[in-house]
Amino acid sequence: MRWTVLALGLTVSLLLSGTEGGETVGVPGSDTRYETVIESKIAGQKVKLRLTGTAMRKRLFFNVYAVASYIEESSKPGSAEELVAFDVPKQLHLVMERDVAGKDVAENFRAAIRANYPEPQFQEEIRALTDYLASQTIRKGDHIWLTHVPGVGLNVILVGKAERTIRNPKFARAVWDIYFGPNNLGVEVKRGLLARL
Predict the structure, then answer these.
(1) pLDDT < 70 positions in the chain
(2) Neighbouring residues of 140: CB distance < 8 A, sequence distance ≥ 6
(3) Scanning 57, 107, 118, 137, which has its CA 20 to 30 A from the CA of 177?
(4) Where are the domains of the chain?
């Protein structure tokens, strides 16, 4: 199997690297604010990452989650395509704006990946991700971290709950394509996540 639970000690430090009162960026329509520089522990190493932008994921007229995109501080992608392609530590930080059934979150991720990668691509990986998400209770205020771990794959943490690693770097790229790829979640989301690139 390509996924493991609590694999390789891939944990996200929730302690932000900036000094107290460091610069933050808000998300329109939300109280959520994101630090412009964070420090995460990825594959046992402390890594500084910088914010590339923030956005709000909506369904119909409702806010679903705020999202921020981070990339290793020294990396300088010049476009969405380069941001997706760079095999460096990257994170997406989702903060839920409402309660959502885990099975609905799972289905939305499945559909968003399939928009760029039709079957049979990533069948095993999508099953691992959707099984994990569907098994969770996801509430307003919950934090979800998606981490691209170079040479390993995708690490998913629903803070305070289980952690899962899906061992396929190409699948991590497929998840980033949800936000930055040809068939993404929408021009406003993509533009927001690239606003500080």
Answers:
(1) 1-21
(2) 96, 97, 98, 99
(3) 137
(4) 3-193
